[in-house]
Design brief:
Layout (H helix, E strand, L loop, with lengths): L5 E5 L22 E6 L4 E3 L5 E3 L8 E6 L15 H7 L4 H24 L2 H20 L6 H7 L12 H5 L10 H30 L7 H5 L3 E5 L4 H10 L3 E5 L2 E6 L2 H26 L1 E8 L3 E3 H4 L1 E2 L13 E11 L5 E11 L5 E8 L4 E3 L2 E17 L2 E7 L1 E2 L9 E7 L10 E7 L5 E4 L5 E5 L7 E3 L2 E18 L3 H17 L5 E8 L2 E8 L3 H33 L1
Antiparallel strand pairs: 1-5, 2-5, 3-4, 6-26, 7-8, 8-25, 9-11, 9-24, 10-12, 12-13, 13-14, 15-16, 16-17, 16-24, 18-19, 19-20, 20-21, 21-22, 23-24, 25-26
Organism: Panicum hallii var. hallii
InterPro entries: Cyt_c_bgen_Ccs1/CcsB/ResB, ResB-like_domain
Keywords: Cytochrome c-type biogenesis, Membrane, Transmembrane, Transmembrane helix
Length: about 550
């Protein structure tokens, strides 16, 4: 058998199918040499020797001659079709077929899931549900003991006829922002944002980045804006567009220009910013610590002793070993006597007893150290230092008294010896105070005696006893918190404001085609369509001016040469 064998493969409009020979040559690698030539006009000869007419469309087609070092392998003819056709019709093995079917099913399920999650009405519904839960969390007191909800939402007298403590405690609405319902809605909204970004925003950006040239004047004329420039060139138009801030590209007689591509990226940035905000809120709800303490002036406390974890991701840092000392607590007052501001002078000490920080805090001016924030939130009356007949001073604890409203009132009692042993009741001097600047005194019969300021050092006689108010010791109310999600939330809101502003930038596209001496121009934009039309008219009016200026320069050059 001759080797190498040569095969003439015709490549007309419809490819011919070649009949296979009845022998099986050895399986060898082929080296192919392609030669192209024009197909002869007329008729061709089939494999059986019959002359067949070559289709008209194939007469001008190219022939491709392929030379092989050895004959390509051919299969033995089989009854009911060739071996190649039979092999192509065979089904894959069960394992491969099952894997392909499972992969196709997974792809279809993923596609349907993404389509469902990226549905705009679903995302809007999720945001409204989250907003409703947030509003509900501001109405329901958060973080109280269960007994508080038993008392405020009793089953025998439901609020609005149906809301009881079960509606609050069962879904976890007593800690709304870390409840499974709220966090689940955040996760669902995050999934919707990611699905929308993947299925809608990213493809739009990819399309917008392509340099889409067009060679059809009719297509350009169908744009939102279109016009024709006689006796102009796309080069002149490109110069004008570049001066207006467009990115200009040319290819032969076609021109494509765009600007404002950042406006296409902005929706993706908005989605990412919202994801940052939700991630930070979730981290705050599940990874923070919180605590509160009332500390009298001059006493200490360890931060870790008052901090409680708020979620499963809460991890105590080393700074929890820091000790806080209240150096001084004092208040400022209005002219009416009402408290205007209260201050706490705090010192922080490490394990070695070294002071690492000191600051006087007040309301809206907290202390921050090592990721921990200490807020000034409340004040109290801890003790009253009193001298009796020159003895003492005695520290009398001040107890808060219940009053209607937000007014505070504290009281204490100084017992006196009763000479009448037949009367078993204990009598003494009562002292009341609304704040740290004045003390009201009553005798053992409950009669008003007078008012003294702790700083006055003026004694007062009550029931034959000389009483001197030495000092009023206040206590500071502090809230402590660690919140690792705050920087993420702030960064998310900053990015949200920035990308929202960028999203208002218009993405404008312009196409132009040189048709003889005329330039056909068309364009569109996604925003500010009226402004875009006015801008295009203004830019196109500059093209004749540029052409005239160029012509004048040419004339000047010719005159100079002459």
């Amino acid at each position: 058998m001759p080797s190498p064998a040569s095969y003439l493969l015709l490549n007309p409009a419809k490819p011919f199918s070649l009949r296979r020979l009845s022998y099986t040559p050895p399986r060898l690698h082929a080296r192919r040499l392609h030669v192209s030539c024009d197909a002869p006009r007329g008729s061709g000869r089939s494999a059986g020797g019959r002359r067949e007419a070559i289709p008209a469309g194939a007469r001008q087609a190219k022939k491709q001659i392929v030379f092989f070092d050895a004959a390509p392998p051919v299969a033995q003819p089989q009854q009911g079709g060739s071996a190649v056709e039979k092999g192509a019709s065979e089904k894959p093995t069960t394992k491969e077929g099952g894997g392909n079917a499972a992969l196709a099913l997974l792809r279809r399920a993923t596609k349907k899931t993404l389509a469902a999650l990226s549905n705009l009405p679903l995302a809007i519904s999720e945001m409204f549900a989250i907003a409703a839960l947030m509003a509900l969390g501001t109405v329901i007191d958060q973080g109280e003991a269960p007994s508080y909800y038993f008392e405020k939402f009793p089953e025998d007298n439901p609020v609005f006829g149906f809301i009881t403590w079960r509606w609050i405690l069962t879904p976890g609405f007593d800690h709304m922002f870390s409840s499974p319902v709220f966090l689940g809605l955040l996760a669902l909204l995050a999934a919707s944002l990611m699905a929308c970004t993947y299925t809608t925003q990213l493809p739009m950006v990819k399309v917008a980045r392509r340099w889409s040239f067009t060679h059809s004047g009719e297509r350009i004329k169908k744009q939102e804006f279109s016009d024709s420039l006689p006796r102009a060139s796309i080069q002149d138009l490109g110069v004008i567009l570049m001066g207006a801030g467009y990115e200009v590209f040319t290819k032969g007689p076609s021109l494509y220009a765009f600007k404002g591509l950042a406006g296409r990226y902005a929706p993706i940035g908005v989605h990412l910013a919202m994801l940052f905000i939700m991630a930070g809120a979730t981290l705050s709800a599940t990874g923070s610590f919180k605590g509160s303490v009332d500390v009298p002036q001059g006493l200490n406390f360890v931060i870790g002793d008052v901090m409680k974890p708020r979620g499963v991701l809460s991890v105590a840092p080393d700074v929890f070993n820091t000790e806080v000392h209240v150096n001084r607590f004092y208040m400022e007052y209005y002219d009416s006597g009402e408290v205007s501001q209260f201050y706490s002078d705090l010192s922080l000490f490490n394990l070695d007893g070294k002071e690492v920080m000191r600051k006087t805090i007040k309301v809206n001016d907290p202390l921050r150290y090592g990721g921990i924030t200490i807020y000034q939130t409340d004040w109290g009356f801890s003790a009253l230092q009193v001298k009796k007949n020159g003895e003492g001073p005695f520290n009398l604890a001040m107890a808060p008294l219940k009053l209607n409203g937000d007014k505070k009132l504290y009281g204490t009692f100084l017992p006196l010896e009763d000479s009448d042993s037949s009367n078993p009741s204990v009598k003494g001097i009562s002292m009341l105070a609304r704040d740290l600047q004045s003390i009201v005194l009553y005798d053992q019969d409950g009669k008003f005696v007078g008012v003294r300021r702790p700083s006055s050092k003026l004694p007062i006689e009550i029931n034959g006893n000389e009483i001197l108010i030495e000092d009023a010791i206040g206590s500071t109310g502090l809230d402590l918190k660690t919140d690792p999600g705050v920087p993420i939330v702030y960064a998310g809101f900053g990015a949200l404001m920035l990308t929202t502003c960028i999203s208002y930038l218009s993405h404008s596209q312009i196409w132009a085609l040189q048709d003889g001496s005329t330039v056909v121009v068309g364009g569109k934009t996604n925003r500010a369509k009226l402004e875009f039309s006015e801008e295009m008219n203004r830019l196109l009016d500059k093209v004749p001016e540029l052409i005239g200026a160029n012509n004048e320069n040419v004339v000047d050059c010719k005159s100079t040469a002459t």
